[in-house]
Write a structure and sequence with these properties.
Elements: H1 2-13, E1 23-24, H2 26-33, H3 37-58, H4 60-71, H5 75-103, H6 105-124, H7 129-143, H8 146-154, H9 162-190, H10 193-200, H11 202-209, H12 218-223, H13 227-241, E2 249-250, H14 255-265, H15 273-289, H16 297-331, H17 342-352, H18 354-365, H19 369-385, H20 394-421, H21 428-455, H22 459-478
Parallel strand pairs: 1-2
Length: about 500
């Protein structure tokens, strides 16, 4: 398939307009300008969005137990604080994807940052449990926009650099988890959970502060037929990167269709306001229904299974770090943690596991491809978790969780690269957002089922459940119909599996 894409790209290079001018595509322009300072700025802004999401997710390991102790909550009420965040993310991931694909990446960022920062700060001042649950659900809704940041950055990267730089982008998530663990370690013993919630909302406010510097995605503009606007952004990229655009005129797959629509509109009476709104409403959901077309549905369903499994496993490992210790001491096993500050230390150590996970995914993603990278790293996670079917020593348990989280991080990193690559621009944010939303279901179920089993002294059953979920994820990764390594990003809706 990649050979076909390369042949089409070379063919386009020889196409000339009727007036004698050569033309070039967006991928050719990005390849000519390479990865430079401009993409670095885009990386910093989009990465900040992922830092914000990672911090708000990691905070669940600390706020739940602290609030439970402060307000005398039951175990189910404590679990609900985690579940409502994922419930909000479930709705947000789908909603922000639709907004991004229909109104642009840039406008979507403004809305995401406003909701997340406002709700995050509000949760820090919640006077009672009910308002805390509502505000954290709103935070989750804002965090559901994480896939939009990833898809946005992806659309600025040249083909040859895509795998490596998407792994670098994923490092922002790791940075967020490590920073949150460090922040909790400093803040919680001296202050309280309210301070931690307030300080953790700062990255979301920073997104609002720097919003004015963010350009729209040129690939999105090309998809909308706005090649003139896209060309202006490409010229800006060229100036920043001290590079030159290819000679000629920028074209997109959408150009011909837009011209046809413009020509036909001359003879077509203007639509009424009501008909315009109806048509806009239908087009807004068309990207969602495309997921179920005959040539995409297999990929869509496999991707949903993969994201559910990876989210269930990853968040389970994060929560197990704090839950397993209290369970072992209560159920007669050895205790992982030994001091008041040991929870923060242990979470910090396991968060560091994401660094070698990123390195591992960077090594594998462009060498053996996306599919086999995911399968290989999840197989490693399965091996690391297996000894935990029975009680292990404190040090060995921490080491095993370290290795399992390292492997799970690598898998999620590659899955986050693969998912937006397999869909066209017109539905990229929506499709990735929906897949991410399915993953949030896994995040919601995990604390209620798997972690609940650990708390109830059923560690063996919980670990076996994780192993089964991981095996399902490995199978789904291997069953994907095509590999995206070296492929150009598609702008059209027609995706071939050949």
């Amino acid at each position: 398939m990649s050979n076909s894409c390369e042949a089409n790209s070379k063919l386009l290079s020889f196409i000339w307009m009727e007036d004698g001018r050569p033309v070039y595509t967006l991928d050719e322009a990005l390849s000519a300008m390479r990865f430079g300072k401009f993409q670095g700025l885009v990386l910093a802004y989009a990465g900040l969005g992922w830092v914000s999401e990672a911090m708000e997710i990691m905070i669940l390991s600390f706020v739940g137990p602290a609030v439970k102790l402060k307000w005398g909550l039951s175990s189910s009420e404590e679990s609900l604080l985690t579940t409502v965040v994922f419930a909000g993310m479930l709705l947000g991931a789908y909603s922000w994807g639709l907004i991004s694909d229909n109104y642009g990446r840039r406008k979507c960022f403004l809305s995401i940052a406003s909701v997340t920062s406002g709700a995050g700060l509000l949760s820090a001042f919640s006077p009672n449990y009910l308002l805390l649950v509502i505000s954290r659900c709103l935070v989750g809704f804002g965090l559901g926009g994480g896939p939009v940041f990833l898809a946005y950055f992806l659309e600025f990267i040249p083909i040859s650099y895509r795998g490596t730089w998407m792994v670098v982008f994923s490092a922002f998530w790791t940075a967020g988890t490590i920073f949150e663990a460090s922040l909790a370690w400093i803040v919680m013993p001296k202050l309280n959970w309210r301070w931690l919630l307030a300080l953790s909302s700062i990255p979301s406010f920073a997104l609002l502060l720097f919003y004015g510097l963010v350009p729209e995605s040129p690939r999105y503009l090309c998809m909308r037929g706005r090649t003139t606007d896209a060309h202006q952004i490409l010229e800006k990229i060229a100036r920043f990167n001290r590079a030159k655009l290819p000679p000629g005129m920028l074209i997109s797959d959408k150009s011909t269709r837009q011209n046809e629509q413009s020509a036909s509109s001359v003879d077509t009476p203007p639509l009424s306001t009501r008909r315009k709104m109806t048509r806009k409403f239908k087009s807004g959901f068309s990207s969602f229904f495309m997921l179920f077309s005959s040539n995409i549905i297999r990929t869509t369903l496999l991707l949903w299974v993969l994201f559910f499994s990876t989210a269930f496993s990853y968040y389970g490992m994060v929560l197990l770090t704090s839950k397993l210790s209290s369970r072992q001491s209560k159920c007669g096993g050895s205790t992982i943690l030994h001091s008041d500050n040991s929870l923060y230390l242990n979470v910090f150590i396991t968060s560091l596991a994401e660094l070698p996970g990123l390195i591992l995914s960077a090594i594998l993603v462009d060498k053996i491809g996306r599919k086999f990278s995911m399968a290989t790293m999840f197989l490693l996670a399965c091996i690391f978790l297996l000894p935990l079917v029975s009680n292990q020593s404190a040090i060995l348990t921490t080491v095993l969780l370290f290795g399992a989280r390292m492997s799970a991080t690598g898998t999620i990193t590659v899955a986050s690269i693969y998912a937006p690559e397999i869909y066209p621009t017109a539905m990229r944010s929506t499709s990735y957002g929906v897949a991410s939303a399915v993953g949030r279901v896994g995040g919601m179920v995990c604390p209620l089922v798997a972690v609940g089993l650990v708390t109830g002294c059923h560690q063996t059953v919980a670990v076996i459940l994780f192993e089964v979920v991981i095996v399902v994820a490995i199978a789904s990764a291997l069953l994907f119909p095509f590999e995206t390594k070296g492929r150009e990003l598609r702008d059209s809706v027609d995706i071939s599996d050949s």
